[in-house]
Structures are given as structure tokens and as C-alpha cells.
């Protein structure tokens, strides 16, 4: 893995004292405050139970709301100055860049380590060390409207026909693509974002060879990639609206659990002139596995949202109290509360056992073969390069 030496050295220097270990540390500050930087949706999911915990433990939780797209860069800028958060909340594939910048420290999950799957932990792990606390998992599946298709496509041929008929939508930009969602199609041709070695990612791009050529041909085909409905170039309201609209031929959406609430509880307006459509009744929303277009096993990406501790925490007066907060965020109590409040799939296996929602269980079943997203320092460049290549093939702009 290509990690800048300066950033890695900074992270290694603090391994000896992590927030979740019982070690000899400076006296804890009176009336301690733990500052967390996170986006508004994560705040809404986590803070109700975290606030109750804080009151019980006599810890003040200071949640600083940040735009999700700017949060990581802001933390990388702030932490080296001695400011910034004690805990960062975000997506696991930030790990490489945060570590490369030297702004996060390893954590020791202690007994909680056994409560997480190897896949959930792998997204926060670099060179065998765990740098984050998994919070909840998410993966994409084939979501469908049962009023438009009573029995979903089960074979590759049936799925291919649905795509040809314009019944399948996936959000992607005409110039930027969306390799996260297109992993469904790419991996069905035997490809992976990077080559896999002994069950983990290498840093070698895995889109070449004969399988890569077959995938490229499919993307450029009028009955293949070109037939996928982008929902007006990925516009969220259009994607929601088309699946809901009884007059739209769209019956399937390649998406994740984050779309469910909007589909089942919200009225949507889309198009010009605007069309208003009612929510889909929960009983009429289905979730199923992806049939394979290319004949190989589909390995869509799985993601894990979670929490890192700042490199400034170990050895400081806040180390113990930050460890208590991270320990709570890792707990079944915290993650069960988040599931009940926001229907997010817990990473903690004890909390996961409490999930009964059939839609979320459908996502879990669909994601059994999912690969965790890589978290290399250079991951942003890989996303951009693959996305633009896929978009160019679909649009025909490959010159």
C-alpha cells in the first residue's frame, strides 16, 4: 500500500497509547468535553443515544456539523495545528488518506473487536492495525417496485432484457460516471477495482485483459451500458420519481439502503413539467440480489461508516474519556439505538441480530459477496479515472 512515510510515521508514533486501552495517562480534565466532527445525517443518527451516554458518564459531547464532502479535508488541515476534532465521523475509505496525512491514531477495540466481522474491520485497517470504530454497514442491491414487476429478474438473461427495455436505472454522470455503482456490472465480467491477493487488495488496477475488453464492449453496446437509465444524469429526485411513478417504465434501481426512506415516506416531484408521485408502500418495495450480466460472481462494494480518533488524543488528558466515547460508539447499545432510529445496518454483530426489517435484511442478503471498498491514499484518483472511462464508453466519447 502506498502510504506517505511521514504520515505513517506520525501514526506509528502514537501506537503505544490508544484511547481504548487502560494505560497510565495524564490526569483527566474536569468536566471533559469530546469534540466530534461529522455530517448532519450522522449526527441525527448517533447523537440521541450518545447524548444520553454523555450525561450518564458526565462527558459533554460537542458535535460540530460539517459538510460531508469537505469534512475529511478540513480535519486534515486542522489537526496538525493542534485544533480540530477529537473524533472524526465518516466513511471507511477515508482511512488511507487520513493516515497518509498523519492525523489519525490506531485504536484497540478490546473485547469489542470480536463483535465485528473481518470485512467491517478491514476497511479501517492498514498494515494489520485498526484505525477506526465501525458504526454501520451499507451495500447496494437491486431495489424494485413490486407494482411494476411482481417477480424480479433472477438470471443474467432476464436482467439483461430489463436493461435493454430501459427498466433499470443507476445514478451516474455523463462525464464522471459512477464506478461505485457500476461495480455491479464490472465484477460480473470478472473484474475488480484492484487485483485481489490472498483475500485483500493489491495496488494494481484490475480492469485489464480480455475480461476488461468484454466489459468495455458491454458498456458501449446499445443494449448494454447505453440502455441504462441514468435518471436525468443522476438527479436524485428523478431517480426516486421514476421508480415511484406508475407511468414510468423504470422498475429497478441500483441503489443502497440510504434510498429507502425517501422511496417509502416522501412525495417526489421530478421532470419538466414537474410530475408529483406518491411514496411506494413499504410492502411494494422489494430488494434482491444482482443477477450476473457477465456470468461471474457479482462483488459490489460494501461500505462501513465509522469513527477515528485524532492523532492528538493518545497521551493527552482526553485519552481516557475519548476512549470511553469510542467504546460506546462500538457497543451494541449504541448501534441498536441507531438502527431503531434510522434503520441503519449495525456493524456490531450483537446489534445486527436485532434487525428484523425485511428490506434491510434484503440488502444484507444481497451483499454477502460484497468486497469492502479499498482505502488507499490514492483512492480518489482511482474513482475518478475509472468513472470517466466508463462514462466515455457509454457516451461514445473515447477518442
* Mean residue pLDDT: 90
Gross morphology is globular
Task: From the alpha carbons, calculate the radius of gyration and give it in angstroms.
Answer: 22 Å
**SS elements, strand count:** 18
Poorly predicted regions are 1-26
Number of helices: 16
**First and last CA, distance:** 32 Å
Describe the biggest sheet? Answer: 8 strands, mixed
> How would you classify the helix and strand content by structural class?
alpha+beta
What amount of the residues lies in strands? 15-25%
Helix proportion range: 25-40%
Protein model, in words:
By secondary structure, the protein is α+β, with helices and mostly antiparallel strands. It has 16 helices and 18 strands. The strands form five sheets. Strands 1, 2, 3, 4, 7, 16, 17 and 18 form an eight-stranded mixed β-sheet that branches.
Q: Could you give a short description of this structure?
A:
This protein is of the alpha+beta class.
List the helices and strands and how they pair.
Blueprint: H1 5-12, E1 33-38, H2 40-57, E2 60-65, H3 68-78, E3 87-91, H4 95-100, E4 104-105, H5 118-122, E5 125-126, E6 129-130, E7 133-139, E8 141-145, H6 156-164, E9 168-169, H7 179-187, E10 192-197, E11 200-206, H8 209-220, H9 231-234, H10 236-244, E12 252-255, H11 260-265, E13 268-270, E14 275-277, E15 285-288, E16 301-310, H12 319-330, H13 332-342, E17 345-346, H14 349-352, H15 358-366, E18 371-372, H16 379-395
Parallel strand pairs: 1-2, 1-3, 9-12, 16-18
Antiparallel strand pairs: 3-16, 4-16, 5-6, 7-16, 7-17, 8-12, 8-15, 10-11, 13-14
Helix pairs in contact: 2-13, 8-16
Amino acid at each position: 500500500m502506498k502510504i506517505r512515510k511521514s504520515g505513517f510515521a506520525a501514526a506509528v508514533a502514537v501506537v503505544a497509547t490508544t484511547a481504548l486501552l487502560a494505560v497510565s495517562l495524564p490526569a483527566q480534565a474536569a468536566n471533559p468535553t469530546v469534540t466530534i466532527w461529522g455530517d448532519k445525517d450522522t449526527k441525527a443518527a448517533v447523537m440521541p443515544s450518545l447524548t444520553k451516554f454523555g450525561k450518564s458518564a458526565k462527558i459533554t459531547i460537542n458535535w460540530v456539523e460539517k459538510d460531508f464532502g469537505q469534512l475529511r479535508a478540513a480535519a486534515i488541515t486542522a489537526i496538525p495545528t493542534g485544533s480540530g476534532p477529537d473524533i472524526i465521523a465518516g466513511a471507511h475509505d477515508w482511512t488511507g488518506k487520513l493516515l497518509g496525512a498523519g492525523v489519525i491514531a490506531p485504536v484497540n477495540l478490546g473485547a469489542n473487536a470480536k463483535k465485528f466481522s473481518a470485512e467491517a474491520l478491514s476497511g479501517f485497517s492498514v498494515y494489520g492495525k485498526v484505525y477506526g470504530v465501525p458504526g454501520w454497514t451499507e451495500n447496494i442491491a437491486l431495489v424494485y417496485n413490486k407494482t411494476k414487476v411482481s417477480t424480479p429478474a433472477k438470471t443474467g438473461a432476464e436482467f439483461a432484457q430489463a436493461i435493454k427495455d430501459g427498466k433499470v436505472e443507476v445514478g451516474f454522470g455523463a462525464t464522471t460516471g459512477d464506478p461505485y455503482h457500476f461495480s455491479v456490472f464490472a465484477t460480473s465480467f470478472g473484474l475488480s477495482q484492484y487485483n485481489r491477493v490472498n483475500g485483500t487488495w493489491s495496488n494494481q488496477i484490475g480492469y485489464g485483459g480480455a475480461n476488461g475488453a468484454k466489459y468495455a464492449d458491454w458498456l458501449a453496446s446499445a443494449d448494454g451500458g447505453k440502455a441504462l437509465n441514468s435518471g436525468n444524469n443522476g438527479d436524485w429526485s428523478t431517480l426516486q420519481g421514476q421508480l415511484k411513478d406508475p407511468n414510468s417504465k423504470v422498475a429497478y434501481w441500483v441503489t443502497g439502503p440510504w434510498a429507502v426512506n425517501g422511496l417509502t415516506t416522501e412525495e417526489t416531484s421530478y421532470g419538466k413539467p414537474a410530475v408529483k408521485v406518491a411514496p411506494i408502500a413499504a410492502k411494494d418495495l422489494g430488494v434482491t440480489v444482482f443477477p450476473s450480466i457477465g456470468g461471474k460472481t457479482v462483488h459490489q462494494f460494501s461500505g462501513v461508516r465509522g469513527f477515528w480518533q485524532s492523532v492528538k488524543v493518545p497521551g493527552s488528558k482526553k485519552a481516557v474519556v475519548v476512549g470511553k466515547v469510542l467504546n460506546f460508539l462500538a457497543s451494541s447499545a449504541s448501534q441498536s439505538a441507531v438502527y431503531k432510529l434510522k434503520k441503519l445496518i449495525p456493524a456490531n454483530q450483537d446489534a445486527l441480530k436485532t434487525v428484523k426489517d425485511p428490506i434491510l435484511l434484503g440488502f444484507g442478503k444481497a451483499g454477502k459477496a460484497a468486497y469492502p471498498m479499498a482505502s488507499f491514499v490514492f483512492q480518489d484518483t482511482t474513482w475518478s479515472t475509472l468513472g470517466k472511462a466508463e462514462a466515455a464508453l457509454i457516451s461514445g466519447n473515447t477518442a
